[in-house]
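Write out this protein's structure.
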Amino acid sequence: MVENASAVAEESAPEQARCGFRKCREPLPPPGPRGGRPYEFCPDRTWPGGKTCKQLAAAEQALREALGDEGVPSAALADAGQAFDQAAAALTDPLRTLSNALDAVTAHLRDEIAAAVGQADAAHEAAAEADRQRDAALVRAAEAEAAAEAAKEAARTAQQAELLAKATTDEAIEARAAAQLAQAKAESATAVITEHAQEAAEEAATQRNRADQLAATLAARGEELATRTAERDAARTALAESDERRKTWERLLDTQKRELTAELDAARAQLSDQEARHREALAEQAARETASRTQLGNAQTELTAAREQLAAAQLRVAQTQAVHEEVTVTLSRIRQRALAATDEPSAPLRHDLLTILLGEDATETRVVRE
């Protein structure tokens, strides 16, 4: 019972589906674990030219619908499909190469443009920072100059105070002591202010030098920005030219595609004409073969009759040959007997000759009757 059940299960198991493309017919994989629609064509297999089984099956069906099921023999269909695949492959490789080259050029130009824009932005930021630093340096230089002027004014005031103190030396000793103290303070303040003024002047000179350096850097950045801008414009021009070349290639490929399509249509028409001529030649060949068979039958009939006549003639020749041999033997015996009976009486000789002749006549009669 178990064996019968297993046999029934094996017989009822569905046959594994195969690819719908006639030149493939490979087993198809089952649907995924979630189920779904079963495959009709190979999901992963590709043919020369990057065509899938589904695309080739659609092309074959379109060709059969255009020319009919009997319009194109399988060999011609295979040749046409192979020629189409070769043409498609020949077009696909230049297109893929051109597309890859255009993508590489576009990516390179985009990278260069992005780098140029980044460098230009960095140059703008550096120029703005240089302007800010220059303005700050100018402000500090102005402040230092103002401090120097204030220090000079304080020195002049101290000098005037010293002169005033010297002019009033005749005043009271208390005033002179106070004046001397004020003079000392003024001299100390003058020295400090002079030192501060020198430091401010040095700082101002340093700031001026830095401002000059920043101005030079800004000029260099401006030149670099101009260069990058020119490079960006050149890159844009090159990108536009590459786009124009790409469009030109696309137009050229469209033209070649139309020409190849026209050639394929002409080849199809030529194939149809050759098929018609081939059918006519086959019909003529069949007619000639029929006539040849008829002539061969007639010749065989005549040959059979000739063979029968030849057999009858051969039989008659054989009979005649046998009679001739018997006659020859008889004559030989008569001659021998005649030669042997030279001295014998004539009666025995005649008797022997008659016996020989009668025996020969009987033999001839028997042969003729047969």
